[in-house]
């Protein structure tokens, strides 16, 4: 198992990604949720973090990098909210 850890930072809130039909017309919320679960099961060294736009994502990148290796001990979405 790799010692690296991946946080997939998504520049939209989770409700928009799962329920909005206009932005993600070709992918239903069920499809997105299913793919995220598959990725998390296959790669236990990653998690997804949904935030409120690009500026917020930039702020979170700095915060996540400052936390360092300890980030893998957190549920990033819970921590963010």
Task: Describe what this molecule looks like in 3D.
The structure is a single chain. This protein is an alpha+beta fold and about 80 residues long. About 50% of the residues lie in helices and about 10% in strands. It contains 4 helices and 2 strands. The mean pLDDT is about 85.
| Series of H and E elements | EHHEHH
Q: Point out poorly predicted stretches.
A: none
Biggest sheet statistics: 2 strands, parallel
Radius of gyration: 13 Å
What are the SSEs and their pairings?
Blueprint: E1 6-10, H1 14-19, H2 29-42, E2 46-50, H3 54-67, H4 76-80
Tell me briefly what this model is.
The protein has 81 residues and is an alpha+beta fold.
Can you give keywords for this protein?
alpha+beta, single chain
């Amino acid at each position: 198992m790799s010692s690296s850890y991946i946080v997939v930072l998504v520049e939209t809130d989770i409700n928009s990604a799962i329920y909005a039909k206009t932005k993600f017309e070709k992918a239903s919320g069920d499809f997105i949720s299913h793919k995220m679960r598959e990725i998390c099961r296959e790669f236990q060294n990653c998690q997804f973090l949904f935030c409120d736009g690009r500026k917020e994502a930039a702020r979170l990148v700095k915060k996540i990098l400052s936390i360092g290796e300890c980030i893998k001990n957190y549920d990033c979405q819970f921590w963010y909210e």
